[in-house]
Amino acid sequence: MSETHAGPTPCHSERLIGDTTVMEVRGEIDILTATPLSARLDTLTAGPCPDLVLDLRPVTFIDGSGLRLLCRARNRILARQGRLRLVADSDRVPRILRLALLGGVFEILPDLHTDLFDAPEQGTACAVAG
Length: 130
Fold this sequence. Notes:
The chain has helices at residues 34-44, 64-79, 92-99, and strands at 11-17, 20-29, 51-55, 59-62, 83-87, 107-109. The protein is of the alpha/beta class. α1 links the parallel β2 (20-29) and β3. α1 packs parallel to α2 (64-79).
């Protein structure tokens, strides 16, 4: 007997505020969810000068695959002269980054600045496990 496990797909929402894409990621970023999330981040970082804010406040777990995903997004953005910011309102994400010897590599914000949300929302997407 064989079982098929459809791994959880990370749920996220996106909004475009000016030239900045804000992506809120919810749930776990792990080996099961990193591939579909990485594909979306590749799309968001494909153009010149991407400006991306990843809101990680609702993230409950990040493993090595999640860290690799963050590093890949960072490297793609820097190669295109863009900017990546992570939002973390607790020490959980910075602590994980420090333990992985990535402390100081990412720009981390404690919250989303209210002036960032003055522009109307352009669109949202939520991946659903299939």
